[in-house]
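check these tokens.
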Amino acid sequence: MNQKILILTRVFLITFLLITINLLSADNPESKPQNLSLAFQIINNSQGTTLYQKDLDYVQVVDLTQGAKINFIYGNITDLGTKKGVYGGNDPQFERQKISQVWSNLYLENSSLFCITNGQFFRNDKNSSTGLAFPVKSDGIIVSDGYAGEIEFPDEKLMLEVWKDRALITKFQPNNLQLSTAPNLIVGLQESADKGVEDQTGRTFIGVKDKDSDRLNETILIFTSKQATQPHAAQVLKSFGATQVMMLDGGGSTQLICQGNNYITSPRSIPQMIAILG
């Protein structure tokens, strides 16, 4: 009888421990990101690129080792802003463009165009041309230092550098702008920088992933949503394997076109965009 009681007691204790562990895992926010990506469905793909969707959220997975490319494109420069940049370079004025028109023009030039989304923060005034808030480098040329400098978010800026086969997100330091060997570069903000952290609004976040644990980030992940909080955007990217995450412009600027389909639309014209080719 005592042996039966002992066995039953052990079974009860083991069952209790398992239930407790499961409950703690369910309540632990760190366990949730790993599950978020499972609910996403593939809705489009091309060479090295895949587009996932869940409700209002979209994630582009861009594998640089499979021939996919990322370009930081911008509108026509109407004023060079020579030597007016906050880091000693230029602060040009870029023509604002409708993302749908940019898609039409670029697709005629290159049919491997997969997606276009919005990119850099900018001065959203009523002028037809405007400046970018933070630096952008495209095809080896620093096209803008930005106008914000260290006045805005001085300790919360990050930098995405993109080479042909890898990418990296690091803390932005002004001298890194000139020292970087990456042909393409864009500066954004930390995921926690206050851009209405808990507001349900348009969000564009970008992350990097090391898919094969070789300490090189071969994959770029881009999150776009018409309605999301900053923590949600970051968690989704991390659920797809992102090890580093950076925030780009959002709100009414967030837009997404893939394979000619308008997934996130806005009447706002913007001066700078991210083009994915696959």
User: Anything to note?
Assistant: The longest strand covers residues 219-228. The chain has two domains: 1-31, 37-277.
